[in-house]
Here is the input.
Amino acid sequence: MSTHEIDQNELDENQVIVGRYLDPAEAHMAQGLLESAGLESFLQGENANAIVPMAFRTRLTVRQEDEEAAKALLAGPNLPEEEQAEGNQPGE
Here is the structure.
């Protein structure tokens, strides 16, 4: 078990779930995004997901104090509508 993978029994009261993923690769990408921003995160249930993928989701957890920052990062850029529209123009 990696240092960033925890069992349900090891889930600290201070941890909150910020994402649930059917695809473990997607969970690892989300974890990498959080860690690149300096937020420590943990994967929970990855082993169960590997055994029965459709029955269990891998959960991504962070400390409670990092919850808002983690959710904002996972939601993606929060650009004003004008900037979003400009970024979607063909040829850019």
The two ends are 44 Å apart (CA to CA). Residues 1-9, 83-92 have pLDDT under 50 and may be disordered. The longest strand covers residues 15-21. The chain has one domain: 5-76.
